[in-house]
Design goal:
This protein has 19 helices and eleven strands. The protein is an alpha/beta fold.
Length: 473
């Protein structure tokens, strides 16, 4: 059986990057702010009825009225169409500020990367020739069916985790300058719809599904924790009954569910990957650091179990499958992420032989603001610079294909470093407020969850003291 899913072609040097550079020229021929992801990509949060085009813009509300007759209105909202119009006119939508910051620093942005990927690039002419308000069927769909989750990650909220919701309801808001994750906030429109209640967004999704499925190139299920959600297995059953050999099927997990559920899930994945049911199965694994520090960031995580299951997955699902680590860059993982990168490098030596089976991405966290890594002083930037230099040392060559670090992986970390260093320009009053909230938040974290910040992050003791001083002023 032929392995599928490798993103690197024969000219393995920066295929992903070169596609982005080529697409930059094509986009610029339309307008300097054009982005195909605004048309062809969608994230759907069905528990709250919110959407955005990719993970950078803020979420906005999906009106329920059009869904009865046009379930594709889950994606083609009036708000999103207005942003498309701005892009075609060469104007920069405010909600896409992350990409504009990168580009103003002479970096390729996700606007170029995403538009250059096959699921978007193939629709270039169709999009630019169509009216700005025309409904479009996305080819890259990410969906959160419900918020059932067993972890309480430090930057998450009751909208995405039932464990968070239970804790907040019992213990109340967190004592930051603006009360954080206050149960009063998650009422009315912001209240996650429990899976036992009627959900008009979920209903509309399954009505849309038969029309959406044939057009899909990438379908990704997030959460909550998808392994705990019956809709995940409903999708799996549909794919097994309706194979789609050009589909990239993706699931994001914390790999920390109970053993019985893990066995059920792994059995499904094995069956899907055994034949031409999909082109490729990408298993996203959410982890931000290494060992105890990773467990602190994602409360409830068992890092040793996660690492064992990563290896089990790679050994037991050897065909048309890969793992991507989602490493959300924040100010708690700067000191341990190098160990995680070393672990990823080691996994590549074992599992990546005929195609790349171990990937990673480093998106930047921007909320809650006290966890932004651009708040940290210059010595922390130096840590990432040293990591970057180590990656360059292990840069992929023809002799080490699939084993080393790819050009675009190195450049993405460089992008993160640039963003982190830009924090030196942040207003001092703003930074001091966030430092105070950092101390208040993680002091409460230790109190509620029985953790110990200084024991877990002894190398950040000076930062902790500085934050404490601002909190007590």
């Amino acid at each position: 059986m032929q392995n599928k899913g490798d993103e690197v072609n024969k000219d393995f040097k920066s295929k992903f990057l070169s596609d982005a550079e080529v697409m930059k020229e094509r986009l610029d021929s339309v307008s300097p702010s054009m982005c195909l992801a605004k048309w062809k990509q969608v994230s759907l949060h069905l528990t709250t009825g919110m959407t955005n085009s990719c993970y950078h813009p803020p979420l906005h509300e999906i009106p329920t009225e059009p869904l009865t007759f046009h379930p594709s209105a889950l994606h083609n909202t009036a708000h999103k169409k207005q942003q498309r119009k701005l892009m075609l006119e060469g104007k920069r939508p405010d909600e896409c500020s992350y990409c504009w910051t990168m580009e103003d620093n002479d970096k390729l942005s996700d606007r170029h990367y995403r538009s250059g990927e096959p699921w978007a690039a193939g629709s270039f002419n169709e999009i630019v020739d169509a009216p700005w308000d025309q409904d479009v069927t996305p080819s890259y769909v990410e969906v959160n069916f419900n918020h059932n989750c067993n972890l309480k990650c430090s930057y998450c909220s009751p909208q995405y985790s039932t464990a968070w919701e239970k804790e907040s309801n019992e213990l109340g808001a967190w004592p930051t300058s603006t009360p954080h994750n206050d149960p009063k906030y998650f009422q009315g429109r912001r209240r996650p719809i429990p899976f036992r209640e009627h959900n008009p967004y979920l209903t509309a999704f399954w009505e849309w599904w038969p029309d959406l499925y044939p057009e899909l190139k990438h379908f990704r299920m997030t959460g909550g924790e998808p392994l705990m959600d019956k809709n995940t297995y409903k999708v799996f059953d549909y794919v097994l009954a309706n194979p789609k050999p050009d589909l990239h099927l993706n699931v994001t997990s914390n790999f920390s569910v109970d053993e019985k559920l893990w066995v059920k899930y792994l059995d499904y994945v094995k069956r899907i990957c055994a034949d031409d049911n999909v082109e490729h199965f990408m298993q996203y694994v959410s982890v931000d650091g290494f060992g105890e520090q990773a467990e602190y960031i994602r409360n409830g995580l068992d890092f040793k179990l996660l690492w064992e299951r990563v290896n089990q997955f790679l050994f037991e699902v050897p065909e048309r499958s890969s793992i991507t680590f989602i490493i959300t860059m924040n100010n708690l993982n700067v000191t341990s992420v190098e160990n995680l990168f070393a672990g990823i490098h080691g996994l590549r030596q074992v599992h990546s032989n005929t195609y790349q089976r171990v990937w990673f991405d480093t998106p930047i966290l921007r909320t809650p603001e006290w966890m932004r890594m651009d708040l940290l002083p210059e010595p922390y930037v130096d840590k990432l610079e040293r990591l970057w230099a180590w990656m360059v040392k292990w840069h992929e060559t023809e002799e080490t294909r699939f084993k080393g670090f790819k050009d675009y992986e190195i450049k993405r970390l460089d992008r993160d470093i640039t963003w982190m260093r830009s924090g030196q320009k942040l207003d001092d009053n703003y930074k001091n407020k966030q430092k105070a909230d950092f101390y208040r938040y993680f002091s409460e974290h230790d109190k509620r969850r029985g953790t110990d910040f200084l024991k877990t992050f002894p190398e950040m003791s000076q930062w902790w003291k500085e934050c404490e001083q601002h909190a007590k002023r």
